[in-house]
Request: fold
Amino acid sequence: MFLGVSALVAPLIAGENPSAVALGTALAVPTVLAAALALLITRLRGNGPQADLGLVWSRRDLEIGLAFGVGGLVLGLVATAVFVAIVGPDVTSAVGDLFGGQRAAPAAAVLIMLIVVFVAPVCEEILYRGMLWGALEKLGAGRWVAFGLVTVIFSLAHFEITRMPLLLVISIPLGLARLYTGRLLASIVAHQINNLLPEIALYLLLTGAVPV
Reply:
């Protein structure tokens, strides 16, 4: 679903100077539809998202997610500094490349922020540390095996080979949040916090508050 919809959406933004909103929509739609399909499958052929994906509300999981998110954010900043020192200052992310040189009104920039900080983490966690993690455990893989495989697959799925080591480091706290609680909410919250600082930087770039 993700790859198929991405292939369909790509031509819509392949023209000259697509707007930031169009790019943000193209970024969100494949992931949202793939996550929606995963939720539908759990309804039609499984035991529902609570049982199959660990998608359960818990204040304790929220607090644990915040803790892993902040810890992961610190780890990510350190890892990024080391990565830039090794690779060089010109390295960027797929999202950075996608929105490079773009400008947007504050309202549009806020919409993109909502997509990157809130929508994308929820959908990605449903797919990877929800559906894929649950499937591996049902197939008999232990939780540590599920943690390792999902961490690697999640990093590879971003299709950023240069940043693969950094993505692996960033993915570890997200997986640990899922591993520690046995549910999905903590990893969703940790993922959202992980995306917060880069999205603030993206907002400032889109609105022209800081130079590219």
